[in-house]
Backbone:
């Protein structure tokens, strides 16, 4: 046996090697068959569903070069999220805005939708998907062509005045001088996505709940189910009797509790397989 930094090589001899290799190959074939069976189940569920809603989290945008918040390479491993606390923002608007600009605005405006976003938009165009509820603020579903998108946590594409409530479309020039100021009342502008200590925008919440309650098939993609109250939305769909399809690279808080069909893998790859089977 040879031990390296990231690997172990085990040398087998004779019949034991043949037996081990045969077992390993059969194991891989079993996994492939199980995965194909689940994929086919998902396709059948999509074909017979009357109202499909998609619910997405940070994982769907990782393939577009946007890091998730949590996990090994997450933003919170690199930055203290204090700058997203609403009280800190009010008391330290310039410092908070500097980090918001660096972490979100400078990154997001150049990101492009990946194949997962594009497949979802394509399925909406075909009339299969009725709406997307996203926890993401990156606007990538809209860039991909999705029309009916509920942004549960808001969007970086807008700024909102802290005093008069005016909403201004984001333009790069607005952030040349920090913090940006409202051109209507002269007060402080804030990114129109929620900070810690703020509630979910009422319109986004109520629209998401209504959409969820109409669904008979609910597809969860790229979310761990750790953030509340967003994580309660799939549970609402389950309670109303919707079939839950989950697409994730690993098990989430939903998997063992409400998921009916778990498809393990990157969203772009799994959705491409589903799309090809739907259109074959």
Residues:
């Amino acid at each position: 046996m040879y031990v390296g930094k990231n690997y172990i090589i085990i040398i087998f001899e004779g019949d034991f090697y043949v037996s081990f290799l045969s077992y390993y190959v059969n194991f891989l074939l079993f996994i492939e068959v199980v995965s194909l069976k689940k994929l086919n189940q998902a396709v059948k569920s999509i074909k017979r569903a009357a109202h499909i809603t998609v619910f997405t989290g940070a994982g769907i945008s990782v393939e577009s070069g946007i890091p998730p918040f949590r996990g090994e390479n997450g933003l919170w491993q690199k930055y203290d999220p204090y700058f997203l606390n609403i009280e800190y923002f009010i008391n330290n608007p310039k410092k908070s805005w500097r980090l918001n600009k660096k972490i979100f605005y400078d990154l997001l405006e150049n990101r492009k939708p990946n194949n997962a976003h594009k497949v979802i938009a394509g399925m909406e165009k075909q009339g299969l998907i009725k709406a997307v509820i996203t926890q993401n603020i990156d606007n990538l579903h809209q860039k991909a062509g999705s029309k009916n998108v509920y942004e549960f946590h808001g969007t970086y594409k807008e700024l909102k005045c802290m005093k008069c409530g005016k909403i201004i479309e984001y333009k790069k020039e607005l952030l040349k001088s920090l913090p940006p100021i409202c051109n209507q009342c002269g007060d402080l502008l804030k990114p129109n996505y929620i900070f810690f200590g703020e509630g979910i925008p009422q319109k986004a919440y109520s629209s998401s709940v209504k959409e969820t309650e109409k669904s008979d098939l609910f597809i969860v993609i790229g979310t761990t189910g750790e953030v509340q109250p967003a994580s309660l939305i799939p549970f609402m769909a389950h309670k109303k009797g919707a079939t839950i399809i989950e697409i994730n690279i690993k098990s989430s808080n939903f998997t063992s509790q409400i998921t009916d069909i778990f498809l393990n893998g990157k969203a772009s790859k799994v959705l491409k397989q589903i799309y090809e089977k739907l259109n074959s």
Remarks:
- The chain has three domains: 2-30, 45-65+115-153+202-280, 67-110+156-193.
